[in-house]
Amino acid sequence: MAKIPLRHFALFTLLICVLFIDFVNGGLPNDDDELVHSKRIEEQVKSFKNSSMAFREEKAKLQNEQAVTKQPEEIVSMVERSISNSTERRKLGYFSCVTGNPIDDCWRCDRNWQKNRKRLADCAIGFGRNAIGGRNGRFYVVTDPGDDDPVNPKPGTLRHAVIQEEPLWIVFKRDMVITLKEELIMNSFKTIDGRGVNVHIANGACITIQYITNVIIHGIHIHDCKPTGNAMVRSSPTHYGWRTMADGDGISIFGASHIWIDHNSLSNCADGLIDAVMASTAITISNNYFTHHNEVMLLGHSDSYTMDKIMQITIAYNHFGEGLIQRMPRCRHGYFHVVNNDYTHWEMYAIGGSADPTINSQGNRYLAPLNPFAKEVTKRVDTNEGEWKQWNWRSEGDLLLNGAFFTPSGAGAAASYARASSLAAKPSTLVGSLTSNAGVLSCRRGRPC
């Protein structure tokens, strides 16, 4: 592990003291003051100038522990209220553009969305609802699709934008295909916003969100990602280091928190389309379109890595489409709210897990394949029934088509979900409209997206 300079050790010690004082004066932040807390974390993170991976890891551990919600069922109820409110407005005809999807209804009706891009940062729901990305920073316009030098990236490239220390809202001057030579290692407080242009990250390395916080990725095509590595890569203006081989994930979330992945189209990568591991938490994955891939989404590092018990992830309004095989998602240890998604294709199973994850499936549409041996939505991986019978896996209001069936377990239909069931997710019959615009949107200046 790299040595940490004395002056940065002092800063780190100061941060510990601040967090201890916070605890003495009232404990860790509750749900009512998380926005204030997020702002304070942003200021603390900006005060640290050493961005080596070792130092990032220590910061991330503190941030991730504070991001954990002590009552995840309350966040589930918040999601349900948001859906209910949006759908009721739709029924009453207040806004012709309202769909019942609370994320989209928050910003898509605005004809001036291009002038009000940062409005998006107020629209997340679920466990990643406090991810503000680069909301408090300036705009950075990517003008150059090149990635010739991962150690010394040119100004105007996406790599140059994402490694900066300050918050940035990153947009693109024109349509472009970005083929990355090495992993795109992001820094904290960044938004990648592809609205209004057609941006592909493809045919090379893809996105790594490692030991950082507050990232939004919206409106990007991510596909044909390949393993890369055994090379030097820059992670901040002041640090670059040796990277071993990467797996070839579309988006790799590693020891990170407050992440929102929304309205992207992902397909055909060497490993996962989205993986979240190593105690990552406070994540929302919403409105994405997944196609043509084997192992779609891994959430949890390994059965033995118990730090993933802090993992809390919302998976909402996504379309799991043609050519998918398994892991939509495959979960370990944490709490996973799977709500109002459209599953129109799988070849092995849709939702799997091991190591006692809590899975709360509400209002999804599951269309089973023709294969009579692949009708089950769920799969307990390498675990005997005597053990998994205790896991809390719940299905409420799911639409099960073509012989699909969900195998519940544990207290999934009873007491442990009492808070969550106070308001139901929207009926699965509405999933078609809730997910009809999943994936990258076609947004044009001067009209709603």
UniProtKB/TrEMBL annotation:
Q: Which reactions appear under catalytic activity for this entry?
A: Eliminative cleavage of (1->4)-alpha-D-galacturonan to give oligosaccharides with 4-deoxy-alpha-D-galact-4-enuronosyl groups at their non-reducing ends
Molecular function per GO: metal ion binding; pectate lyase activity
UniProt-listed SUPFAM superfamilies: Pectin lyase-like
Pectate lyase domain residues are 175-372
Q: Spell out the SMART domains in the cross-references.
A: Amb_all
Tell me which EC number(s) this protein carries: 4.2.2.2
Question: Pathway listed for it?
Answer: Glycan metabolism; pectin degradation; 2-dehydro-3-deoxy-D-gluconate from pectin: step 2/5
Q: What InterPro entries does the record point to?
A: AmbAllergen, Pec_lyase, Pectin_lyas_fold, Pectin_lyase_fold/virulence, PEL
Q: Which residues form the signal peptide?
A: 1-26
- Keyword Metal-binding attributed: yes
Cofactor binding: number and manner: Binds 1 Ca(2+) ion. Required for its activity.
Q: Which Pfam families match?
A: Pectate_lyase_4
Q: Which cofactor does it need?
A: Ca(2+)
- What keywords is this UniProt entry annotated with? Calcium, Lyase, Metal-binding, Signal
Q: Which PANTHER family match?
A: PECTATE LYASE 18-RELATED, PECTATE LYASE 20-RELATED
Q: Which family does it belong to?
A: Belongs to the polysaccharide lyase 1 family.
What's the protein here called?
A: Pectate lyase
Source organism per UniProt: Carnegiea gigantea
